C-alpha cells in the first residue's frame, strides 16, 4: 500500500470511529431548556458528582465530534453535561447571531441545572466559554482546550478565509463553507476530500450555517495581533489552558498568550497529543484540575 493510500485509509478509519461514537450518542436521553429568547437548547447528562458542562467547537454537537467520548471518560468523577449549541442537533435557532445569545444559552443551562459548574470549552467553544465567564459569575473553574487564538508571527490572519466562509454560507453553499473552514483550521486537502466521501460530511454540511456564529466569536482573535490585556481581567476563577504537545505551533503559542493576560491561568501541554482531540489524554488533566477523585 502506498503512503497516500495509507493516509486515506487512516482518515477514513477516524471518520468511521467518530460515526460509531455518534450512534451511541444518539441514544442518550434528550433534555431541554429554553434560552432567554425562547430558543430550545437540547442537552444530555451522564455520571455523578460536581457539575461539568462541555462547550463544543465549530460544527460539532452531541451527534458528531468527540465531546461525548470525553464525557464518558469524565462521568465517573462528574455529572457531565453536553449540549447542542444553537442551530445544531436538537437545539433550535433564531437565525440571528450575537455572542450574547450563546452566552444566554449557557446561562439558561446553568440555571436549570443549578450549582456552580465547572466549564470545559473546546476550540472555538473555549473562546465562547471564556467570554461567558466574564458575565456568568457562577462558573467556578474553566478548562479551555486549544482556543484558536492567532497571535503575532505564528501564522497569517484568517480574515480572507472567514470572508469566503461567510459568503458561502450566505449563498447556501454548505460544501464550500465546510471545506474552507476545515482547510483553514489545518486539515490537509487530501483529508478533506476523504472526509467528503463519508456520512460525517453530510452532518457537517447540515450545520454549516453555524460557521457564521463561530466566525463572529473567533475571527477578531485571529488577526495575528497580541491578545488584549484588559478584556478578561474580570475573570478571576482558575483557568487551565491545554494544547497537544504535537499540535501546531500557532495553537500552542495562542494558548500560552492567553495565560499571560488572565489573572489565574495555567498552561498545560498534553504529551503526544495532537490537534485532534484525544479524550483519553485530555480527561486525566481535567480530572486533576477540577478536583475529581482519582
* Low-confidence blocks of residues: 1-10, 16-26
DSSP strand (E) fraction?
5-15%
Count of individual helical segments: 11
Q: Can you list the strand order of the major beta sheet?
A: 1-2-4-3-5-6-7-8
Proportion of helical residues: 40-55%
What is the arithmetic mean of pLDDT? 90
Q: What oligomeric state do these chains adopt? A: single chain
Structural class, by secondary structure, is: alpha/beta
What's the end-to-end separation, in Å?
A: 43 Å
- SSE string, helix = H, strand = E? HEEEHEHEHEHHHHHEHEH
CA-based shape: globular
Total E-strand runs: 8
Largest sheet report:
8 strands, mixed
State Rg: 18 Å
Summarize the structure.
This protein is of the alpha/beta class.
Task: Describe the structure in your own words.
- The protein has eleven helices and eight strands.
- By secondary structure, the chain is α/β, with parallel strands linked by helices.
- It has an eight-stranded mixed sheet, sandwiched between helices.
- Helix 1 (3-25) crosses helix 7, helix 2 (67-74) crosses helix 11 and helix 3 (99-113) crosses helix 4 (124-133).
- The termini are far apart.
Helices and strands, with pairings:
Elements: H1 3-25, E1 31-34, E2 40-46, E3 51-55, H2 67-74, E4 79-83, H3 99-113, E5 118-122, H4 124-133, E6 141-145, H5 159-170, H6 174-185, H7 189-195, H8 199-206, H9 211-218, E7 239-244, H10 249-259, E8 265-270, H11 279-290
Parallel strand pairs: 3-4, 3-5, 5-6, 6-7, 7-8
Antiparallel strand pairs: 1-2, 2-4
Helix pairs in contact: 1-7, 2-11, 3-4, 5-6
Amino acid at each position: 500500500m502506498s503512503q497516500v493510500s495509507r493516509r486515506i485509509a487512516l482518515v477514513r478509519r477516524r471518520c468511521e470511529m467518530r460515526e460509531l461514537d455518534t450512534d451511541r450518542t444518539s441514544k442518550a436521553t434528550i433534555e431541554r431548556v429554553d434560552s432567554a429568547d425562547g430558543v430550545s437548547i437540547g442537552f444530555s447528562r451522564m455520571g455523578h458528582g460536581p457539575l461539568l458542562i462541555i462547550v463544543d467547537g465549530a460544527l460539532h454537537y452531541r451527534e458528531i465530534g468527540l465531546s461525548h467520548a470525553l464525557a464518558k471518560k469524565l462521568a465517573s468523577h462528574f455529572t457531565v453535561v453536553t449540549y447542542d449549541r444553537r442551530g445544531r442537533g436538537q437545539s433550535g435557532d433564531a437565525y440571528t447571531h450575537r455572542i450574547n445569545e450563546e452566552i444566554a444559552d449557557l446561562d439558561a443551562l446553568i440555571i436549570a441545572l443549578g450549582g456552580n459548574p465547572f466549564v470545559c470549552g473546546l476550540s472555538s467553544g473555549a473562546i465562547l466559554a471564556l467570554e461567558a465567564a466574564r458575565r456568568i459569575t457562577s462558573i467556578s473553574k474553566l478548562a479551555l482546550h486549544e482556543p484558536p487564538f492567532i497571535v503575532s508571527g505564528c501564522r497569517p490572519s484568517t480574515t480572507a478565509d472567514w470572508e469566503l466562509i461567510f459568503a458561502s454560507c450566505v449563498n447556501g453553499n454548505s460544501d464550500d463553507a465546510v471545506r474552507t473552514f476545515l482547510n483553514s483550521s489545518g486539515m490537509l486537502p487530501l483529508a478533506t476530500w476523504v472526509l467528503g466521501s463519508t456520512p460525517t460530511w453530510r452532518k457537517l454540511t447540515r450545520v454549516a450555517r453555524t460557521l457564521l456564529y463561530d466566525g463572529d466569536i473567533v475571527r477578531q482573535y485571529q488577526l495575528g495581533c497580541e491578545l488584549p490585556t484588559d478584556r478578561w481581567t474580570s475573570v478571576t476563577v482558575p483557568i487551565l489552558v491545554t494544547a497537544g504537545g504535537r499540535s501546531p505551533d500557532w495553537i500552542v503559542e495562542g494558548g500560552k498568550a492567553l495565560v499571560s493576560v488572565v489573572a489565574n491561568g495555567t498552561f498545560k501541554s498534553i504529551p503526544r497529543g495532537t490537534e485532534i482531540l484525544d479524550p483519553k489524554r485530555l480527561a486525566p488533566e481535567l480530572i486533576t484540575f477540577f478536583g475529581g477523585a482519582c
